[in-house]
Amino acid sequence: MLDGPDQGSDTLLEVNNIEVIYNHVILVLKGVSLKVPKGGITSLLGGNGAGKTTTLKAISGLLRSERGEITKGSISYRGERLTGEDPAAQVKAGIIQVMEGRHCFEHLTVEENLLTGAYTRRDGRGATEADLQMVYDYFPRLKERRKSQAGYTSGGEQQMVAIGRALMSRPETILLDEPSMGLAPQLVEQIFGIVKRLNEEQGVTFLLAEQNTNVALRFAHYGYILESGRIVMDGPAAELRENPDVKEFYLGMSEEGRKSFRDVRSYRRRKRWLA
Ligand SMILES: Nc1ncnc2c1ncn2[C@@H]1O[C@H](COP(=O)(O)OP(=O)(O)OP(=O)(O)O)[C@@H](O)[C@H]1O
Fold this sequence. Notes:
By secondary structure, this protein is of the alpha/beta class.
C-alpha cells in the first residue's frame, strides 16, 4: 500500500514541476516533481548541493527568508495549493520542517525547547502535557536531560530535541532534513528507528532528505534521487536498493568506488528530463 505514488495510495503532498531561483539568478531546482503518500516515509536522496534542502524549504515556506523563489510549478497539500510564502500557514496545515543541523534554542532547557514547538496549539495545557509525555516515551534520553541547557547536550540529543519539538505541534507531515548529519552510525540507526515507530504508531508522514542513501532506503518506503536540481530516478525503496546504478553510485557497492551518474557514459537510469 505504501509502495509509492503510483500504487493508488492517498497522496498528501504533491510537488509539481517546481523551479526555484535564489537571488533572482541562481537556478537551483529545474523542474522537481514528487508525491508523498499519506502515512508513508518518502526519502529525497542526493549528494551535497543537489537541492534537497531547497525542495523541503519550498514546501515549508522557508525559501523567502533566503531570497529564494518558486518561479514555476506548484505545490499542493491535501489537494489545496500552498503559496509557499507563509511558514505559519504550513504549520497550521499540518506540515513542519526539522532543519538540517538541529537548530535548538541553546540557552533554553531541553523541555523548554520542546514546549516552544507547541506554541501554535490552542487545545490546552492538558493536551500539550500529554504530547510532552509522548515525546519522552519515544526519546527517554530527553526525559533524563529535560532540565539541561540544550546548548550543552550532544549532537544526537539535539537531533532528538529538534524532532521532539516538531512533534509538539502535532504535525501530520514532518519534513526532516538530513537527520543523520554528523552522528555516529549507532545513533543514526536509533534516530531512524524512532522515525519508523512514529510513522507506524503515530501515523506521522515523513519526507526526509538524506545523503546517507543506505540508511534512508532501509527505513523509507519510497525514494527519489535528486542530482543538480533534477529528479533522476525514483521507485519503491526496496527496488532502489537493488538497482545496480544506485548500488554503484550511491551505496558504494562497486570496486571503483562512488561516482556521480554524470561521470558515466553508459548508465541505465531513466533520463527523464531528456524524454
Ligand atoms: N540561500 C541561498 N542562496 C544562494 N544559493 C543557495 C542558497 N541555498 C542553497 N543554495 C545553493 O543551492 C544549491 C542546492 O542547495 P541545497 O542546500 O538545497 O542542497 P542539498 O541537496 O540540501 O545539499 P546539502 O546536503 O549539502 O545541504 C547549492 O548549489 C547551494 O549552493
